[in-house]
Specification:
alpha/beta, 6-stranded mixed beta sheet, two-stranded antiparallel sheet, 7 helices, globular
Length: 213
């Protein structure tokens, strides 16, 4: 499944590789890869496979799940679709509290002790998803874990998840996507090592020169 999802993301250009002309993240880090999983929502066949795969992850890994919570904003649609498939309640956590009305941070009904799975589109350094987990825990939820479409597998992200005692299950990972990209001709085989070098240390941009040494 991981390989097929990787191919799907590449085919709709939800994941793009550009090691010779790196993308610039908001943090200023130069990246050979850009991921926009919102594009999966506009590709019905890919969307169906992804949402069914996410639903299956929840069934297999978190069978006691009672509520799905999406991350704002990219995880909201996925949480809604997976909630429909599993016939589960869903809501989402805002990036900040509203300044009007009830000033909610959490949208949707959540009871103390509810067993919650967070739905995220992608994880890099894990800061955003862990903020959502913290908000839910503070509200009294029992957060079982996270399901996501794609994870970079960065050391910082993995360490943060471990320290927060949060388990994430992704449909596909950077290793699989880089391999599929080479097999499909999106990047030359030699670029796999360059991409993975970025993953291992995003602050070291020596891979840009064309070498993974």
């Amino acid at each position: 499944m991981s390989k097929e999802i990787a191919k799907d993301l590449l085919s709709i250009e939800a994941v793009m590789f550009r090691p010779e002309e790196p993308f610039i993240w908001a943090s200023g880090i130069k990246s050979p890869i850009y991921c926009d999983n919102r594009l999966t929502l506009t590709a019905p066949e890919v969307r169906t496979r992804i949402e069914n795969a996410l639903a299956q992850k929840v069934r297999e890994k978190f069978p006691s799940c009672q509520v799905l919570m999406g991350t704002s904003t990219a995880g909201i649609a996925h949480a809604a679709i997976v909630g429909h498939i599993l016939n589960l309640p869903m809501g989402y956590v805002r990036s900040g509290a509203k300044d009007h009305g009830r000033k909610n941070r959490i949208e949707g009904k959540l009871n103390t002790g509810d067993k919650v799975v967070v739905v995220e589109d992608l994880i890099s350094t894990a800061g955003s998803v862990l903020e959502v987990v913290e908000v839910l825990r503070d509200a009294g939820a029992d957060v079982l874990g996270v399901v996501s479409i794609f994870t970079y597998g960065m050391k910082k992200g993995l360490e943060r998840l471990s320290e927060a005692n949060v388990t994430n299950y992704s449909l596909t990972y950077l290793d699989e996507i880089a391999k599929a990209a080479a097999e499909q001709g999106y990047i030359p085989e030699t670029d796999i090592a360059r991409v993975l070098k970025f993953r291992d240390d995003p602050t070291d941009d020596s891979w840009i020169g064309g070498s993974a040494e």
